[in-house]
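Extended Data, panel c. Modelled sequence:
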Amino acid sequence: MIALKVRRPINLEDYTPPVELLQILPLKSSVRGKDVGPQIGPNNSKFSTGMQALLDLLFAVEGSVLDAAKILGLSTGALSRLILSDDSLRTAANELRASKVAAIAVGGVAVDGQSSTELILITGFRDIL
């Protein structure tokens, strides 16, 4: 399913969850308005567009369930339960989190009297940064 593999970039500074994502969120989400309608689950054909929007957000926050939950007005437990509600969503979220690579540019490192920049790659340790 393409919704599980293709990520759309989002700007976190002015991010507002799209309706497709709001529709799959639990009713207790603080960003989910009453005008969104009833929550739709994995058996609904519209769930895949909500999954795509959720995965886009997870990608934007470098796989952090904590950061995504804060943006969506949920506890990490509630967001985790949503992710676990669908096997394909769970698998895609886990693959996304496992593959996320954080690159840190460290400037001003002197090498033989020359100023340079090193690129340090850290995988799987986003929360220690």
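The chain has one domain: 19-122. This feature is highlighted in the accompanying rendering.
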